[in-house]
Structure formats: C-alpha cells, structure tokens
Amino acid sequence: MSRDVRRRAVAEALGTAFLVCGVVGSGIAAQRLSPSDVGLQLLQNSVATGAVLVALILALQPVSASFNPVVTVVEAALGRVGASVAVALVAAQVMGGLVGAVVANLMFDLAPVSVASQERGGAGQLVGEVVATLGLVVVVFGALRSPRAETVAFAVGGYITAAYWFTSSTSFANPAVTLARTLSDTFAGIAPGSVAGFVLMQVVGGVLGFLAVRALHPPAPISLDQESS
C-alpha cells in the first residue's frame, strides 16, 4: 500500500469514527436531555450529525472525506479511484465506524458494546433508505463539480440534516455507519437483524444514484485530437 493510500485510509477511518461518535453520542445526549420528547431528540441528533459532517469534510477533504462505502464505490465506478484503493478505503470506513461507536458508548459511561435492540424495517423505511442514499450520491457528485471545495461539506451536511426528517428511515444512507450503530443500544441504534435490509436498500440507492449522476453529468466526449494522440 502506497503512502498516499495509507494517508487516505487513515483520513477515512478517522472521519468515519468521528461521524459515528457524532451520530451515536448526540443520540445518547438527546435521550438524556429530552427523555420524554422523541421529536426533540431527533432534532438534536440531526443537527449534531449535519454539523459534524460539515466540519469533518472541511477538515479532511484535502486528503479523503467520503466516510461512506456507497460513495467510495460510486467514485470507483466513475473512475475517480482505483478498485484496490476503494477496497482499502471501505475497509477503513468500516473499522473507523466500529471504533466510533465504542468510543461514543464509553464517553457516556455505557458498556463499550451493547447490541442494539431497535428493530427497523418495513416497506416504508426500506424505500426511505433508497431515497436517502440516492439523494446523497446526487448531492455529493453534483457538489463536487462546484469550483468551491467547501460546497461539498455544506451540501452534504445540509442534505443529511434534512433527510433525517423527510425520510421514513431517518436517513442512515451509509453501510459503515449502519453496521457501527448495531454496537450501541441507544437512540441511534439498529438491531443486527435489520442491517441486511438497510444495506441492500443503500446499495440499490447507490446504483440509482450512479445512474442519475451519469445522466446529469456525462463524461466529456473524446475529441479527434485526443483519439489520435
């Protein structure tokens, strides 16, 4: 593994760990601060998640800031990263997410691992995951075409904050984060038995997002000069 790939993998692991800390930790704090108001808990959780995404993307984008296996695989499909690099980054994202969940539990004096019991599923929530992931991919790769690098951070943070509310699944939209959330039996948790359905729908959303990005932003045609060079 080259030094550049190692740097990118460290950035992805660190960023995903902090992202999961933000998701899980703010969920625990919300439960404790507003124990009788689930709507307020969701508001607190969504704002914290959107804010930490903005900060992490701004800080780590110069190295690597996908924090999401679906986004990384779409990057590979679009030719932005090689397949071997994508595998390394996805592995780093998954490991970082698991560490982030454990750290979040420890910060709030909980057991390092508590298997989540909250079942999530049903047709509506599964459709919600397709919509959430499709929208995320379109937002990420549309914002990347902006001449201002910080556009991606604010676009993604804003989208995820909103998608917590307009999708029935509260917008997991990330296989690494979904898996990590099985390790905390708290507000943000998801039971292990619900993970496969969520991840499958995230993959479907990623494929649809890839097709949408291709339709909206087709590759530049190769000129005659390029063909002859």
UniProtKB/TrEMBL annotation:
Entry's Gene Ontology cellular component terms: plasma membrane
Give the transmembrane ranges. 9-30, 81-103, 123-144, 151-167, 187-213
Q: Which UniProt keywords apply?
A: Membrane, Transmembrane, Transmembrane helix, Transport
Q: Which GO terms describe its molecular function?
A: water channel activity
Q: Does the entry feature the keyword Transmembrane, yes or no?
A: yes
User: May I ask which residue range the UniProt record assigns to the signal sequence?
Assistant: none
Asked whether the keyword 4Fe-4S is assigned, the reply is no
Instruction: Return the InterPro entries for the record.
Output: Aquaporin-like, Aquaporin_transptr, MIP
Localisation = Membrane
The protein's matches in Pfam families, at most eight in alphabetical order, are given as: MIP (PF00230)
How is it placed in the membrane, per its record?
Multi-pass membrane protein
- Record family assignment: Belongs to the MIP/aquaporin (TC 1.A.8) family.
Q: Which PANTHER family match?
A: AQUAPORIN TRANSPORTER, MIP17260P
Please report the name of this protein according to its UniProt entry: Glycerol uptake facilitator (Major Intrinsic Protein Family)
